[in-house]
Design goal:
This protein is of the alpha+beta class and 160 residues long. It contains three helices and eight strands, in the order αβββββββααβ. The chain has a single domain, classed as Peptide Deformylase (Alpha-Beta Complex), CATH 3.90.45.10. It has a five-stranded antiparallel beta sheet. It has a three-stranded antiparallel beta sheet with strand order 4-5-8. The chain is globular. Removes the formyl group from the N-terminal Met of newly synthesized proteins. Requires at least a dipeptide for an efficient rate of reaction. N-terminal L-methionine is a prerequisite for activity but the enzyme has broad specificity at other positions. Pfam families: Pep_deformylase (PF01327). It catalyses: N-terminal N-formyl-L-methionyl-[peptide] + H2O = N-terminal L-methionyl-[peptide] + formate.
């Protein structure tokens, strides 16, 4: 396991669409391990592979709830309901937060590290984190869809 360098806006990789993972290899397992280590080290709650310069549809999320660390390959939102407006930050855009409108409840499906399909029912902050990370896979940053963007004092930062 190793820490990876998180790329920052305006790196062009953050605006590209990530490619679907078609083979689960030891490199994908290492990527998942490194992404989790990097996310925790940076005190984030989610990380998408493009944020470390890798255009693969891979995310990790841990919002500190009973789900713990969720690793997902090729995530797809199957169902989305309701609406929430709330603050978001991003490890790739340090110092800025924004108020972003997201779905309140979602069902996400993807593969685990062994190629098994699984779904997660997510609400509230977990739903927000999944949507934020999946946006990264599609080259979308929260600043592009936020209703407002504002600077955050260093001590108040928590990023997705």
């Amino acid at each position: 396991m190793a820490l990876r360098i998180i790329v920052h806006e305006p790196d062009p990789v953050l605006h590209q669409v990530a490619k679907e993972v078609t083979k689960l290899t030891p490199n994908i397992h290492k990527l998942l391990n490194d992404m989790a280590d990097t996310m925790y080290h940076a005190e984030g709650v989610g990380l998408a592979a493009p944020q470390i310069g890798i255009l693969k549809r891979v995310i990790v999320v841990d919002v500190g709830d009973e789900h713990g660390l969720i690793e997902m390959i090729n995530p797809v939102i199957l169902k989305a309901e309701g609406e929430q407006l709330g603050p978001e930050g991003c490890l790739s855009i340090p110092g800025l937060n924004g108020d972003v409108r997201r779905h309140q409840h979602i069902t996400v499906q993807g593969l685990d590290r062994h190629g098994n399909t699984f779904t997660v029912e997510a609400s509230d902050f977990l739903a927000r984190a999944f949507q934020h990370e999946i946006d990264h896979l599609n080259g979308i940053l929260f600043t592009e869809i936020a209703e407002s963007v504002y600077e955050v004092p260093r001590e108040g930062r928590k990023a997705e």
